[in-house]
Amino acid sequence: MSRFSNRKTEKIMNQLINYLSWSEQRSKLFYTCPKQYGYRFIESWEGWLPTATKSAQDAYYHNCLVSDLRLVTGNIVHDRCGRVLKRLVGGITSDPATEIAIAEADFDNFLSNSAKLPLTALGSKRKKLIAHLIGKVVPPTLIASERASIPVMMEQFFALPEIALFAAHPELMLREFIEAEIGPPTNELGVPARLVTDCVYQQDDITWVLDWKTGRPHESHRDKGVVYDAYVRARLKLPPKSQLKIRFYYLKTGETADFEFAHEERQEALWRIGEDFFLLQQKSLDPVVNIAPLSSFPARVDTHCFNCTHRLICPEFKAAGFGVHTAASPNIWAIDARVQINLADEQKEIAS
Question: What is the pTM assigned to this prediction?
Fold first, then answer.
């Protein structure tokens, strides 16, 4: 379940370095709640080590919790799609029925393990629903709905025209962009960034960037598209006037969205990224490595806290009276459970 991993790492001198970098998720978290950003990308660093501080271990284990069952489904589908594409690059096709069965088995195994794994057994490939941790029952109807969505999304994926195209012409795909983190290490402004592409291919002098979504269309996807445009162009060293198109496929709904951006839009996106990165850099004690005390990141306690897996260890969240069933707040746990198991907030974008 590698897409849940949020660490940008590099092995130098047998050490993992927590490099300061920009990503869409980091930027959103920082603006939503600086404390959540601090927990996820700084305090949790090296929390997997037995010698780490308790605070680091707590932050790391809570990084490994999953707040939304749809994230699990989306991750599983993305993983299978990526494996299918990597086989196609080598000229090997995949059987849809087999891939669907594997994805369904992965879903079942996740739920089984999630219910019994202790917090301290979690890791980058071992996740747990926060609903299971706090003793909430995930409704069978929700589980059935999410499981039923797997064959729907996988069938949509196999029906995409590009899949047939790649089966006939695998040479069109750029192997280094399949389910891969892209750079370059810095953009034109010297900003290190972290982006993951699902697929990039070139045909008839057009470069296509494909992204499959397991959620619903959202206006923020346009912003994501222009960032893809800027960084893929830089990585491939494409001429400024070359044609590049972004296509989002929404596997659950069958919808498609195409984008093509002007040079001015790309430059505006790069400047926005530069401004965001500067704010993150100001918080760090080092301009290259992401180091800062958790106390320098204040919490913004609001309803978004119910989608944060670190709320269970957040002092500000507890001080605000959330998560404590009292006469003054009789519905807090009801709200908590409802949000965490996806029975409300249907308009919330699920990053996929």
Answer: 0.83
